[in-house]
Amino acid sequence: MAPDLGFRYSLESDTKHARHSACRKAHNGRRATHATTRGARTPGMAKCAAWHSGWPGAGASRDGTEGRERQMAENTMIDASEARRLTEAADPNREYAEADTLAQSALSWALRNAEGRTDTRVRTYAQHGHTHLSLKFAPGSGDGRGNGNSFYNDLLGNSNVAVADAICDIIYGRDQQLISPLQSKRLLNTYSTRLARFVRTLGRLGYEVTTGSEQYGNANLDDSTIIVSW
Q1: CB-side neighbour CA atoms (13 Å) of 29
Q2: How many angstroms separate the CA atoms of 228 and 224, rounded?
Q3: What DSSP line would sit under the chain, residue for residue?
Q4: Are 149 and 140 in contact (CB under 8 A)?
Q5: How far apart are CA 135 and CA 77, in angstroms?
Q6: Looking at residue 154, what is its pLDDT?
Q7: Which residues touch 214 (CB under 8 Å, ≥6 apart)?
Q8: Each residue of 23-68: pLDDT tens digit?
Q9: Distance from C-alpha of 47 to C-alpha of 65, rounded to nearest angstrom
Q10: Residue-wise over 11-29: b if at least 16 C-beta within 10 A, else e?
Q11: Over the Cα atoms of the chain, what is R_g?
Q12: Residues 83-123: pLDDT tens digits?
């Protein structure tokens, strides 16, 4: 004998309707009691939504979200004990820290710029019938106080006037008090190494490389200039 599907459907519908009505009554009662917190999901509402939607985690979504947010914050935020260790390890008397960092970044950028734009300039000059060009691979000996050649401007653009002037002093062997002695040696070593490598690379590619020797001037061929000929 076939089962009475209509009776079972009616029974299930009545059961669900009864549960739904109970949830609505519980929800209405809580909303009346907590009128000042209108718009917030109460545990009763969450359970009701979970029962009707079939989502087992709906009742705990708020607590779960807050837990995940706390965990994410803990994973990305530095721990207070680590911050205290960093503070204890810091040297409050190291007055060179900012200038040292800026100087390293500025010199690296200026050298990279001087090397990187050489290829484009050679192509452009050759296409217009020229056989040589001049490159500024150092600040001019008289550059400073915010005025100088393209290399000095690259230093200035990535630091400040004081740091750019101090780098000029280091390159030309003059005394300066802004950048630490150790960092000064590192900067000079970096500059000398990169310059020698750049000149060797040009020679290996068949270019003739000489240096300028005319009187100093922002547009003249001074001791900061490399002349590349082909």
Answers
A1: 8
A2: 13
A3: ----HHHHHHHHHHHHHHHHHHHHHHHHHHHHHTGGGTTPPPHHHHHHHHHHHT-TTGGGHHHHHHHHHHHHHHHHSPPHHHHHHHHHH--TT-TTHHHHHHHHHHHHHHHHHHHHHHHHHHHHHHHTT--EEEEE-S--TT-BTTB--HHHHHHHHTS-HHHHHHHHHHHTT---SSS-HHHHHHHHHHHHHHHHHHHHHHHHTT-EEEE--S---TTS--TTEEEEE-
A4: yes
A5: 46
A6: 96
A7: 220, 221, 222
A8: 565 555 555 555 444 544 555 555 555 444 444 444 455 556 666 6
A9: 16
A10: eeeeeeeeeeeebeeebee
A11: 37
A12: 888 777 766 556 678 899 999 999 999 999 999 999 999 99
CA distance 195 to 136: 11
The two beta strands, 208-211 and 225-229, are antiparallel
- Residue 162: both structure tokens together: 């004081």
Q: Which residue has the tokens 């740091």?
A: 163
Q: Stretch 142-163: mean pLDDT, rounded?
A: 94
Contact 27, 41 (CB under 8 A): no
**Alpha-carbon distances of 95 from 99, 100, 148, 178, rounded to whole Å:** 8, 9, 27, 9
Residue 8 has pLDDT above 70, yes or no: no
Residue type, 66: E
**Which residue in the block uniquely carries the two structure tokens 């296409």?**
127
Q: What is the pTM of this model?
A: 0.57
Six-digit token string for 26: 């519980």
At a CB cut-off of 8 Å and minimum separation 6, what does 52 contact? 20, 23
Longest dimension (CA), the chain: 115
